[in-house]
Amino acid sequence: MNTIVGNEQIAKAASRPMGRLAAYWTVTILLAFSIALSGIGQLMRYGGNVDLVTDIGFPLYVTTILGTWKLLGVLAIVMPGFPRLKEWAYSGLFFLMTGAALSHAFANDYGDYGFHVILPLFYAALVIASWAMRPKSRRL
User: Which residues of the chain have pLDDT under 50?
Assistant: First the structure.
């Protein structure tokens, strides 16, 4: 009986890292894709990105800065190696997203149903989830 229980525990232990790795990459790819699209949109000043920034009182050149930071952060998180750079990229994206939510909230620019505040906070939650689930090879 101990042999069976022991084998079940070994099977459970072996399957956990694979599930965690799959969850990490799912969250990280969703995060990277979303932030990259946002960064490209800001660099190209596409869609409502101009109004989104100017309505809360920021100058238009901020879109170039934010778009560049977003794309560089995504590259740092997705590429292999450079664990210290990844830590900085995660923290930078977290501060970028929470800063966006707070900027819209302080400017009373909540958008429809609070979308301008909720979406950046959702991205910040994805950043935290990706950071927390990252494999040992991507940690300091």
Answer: 13
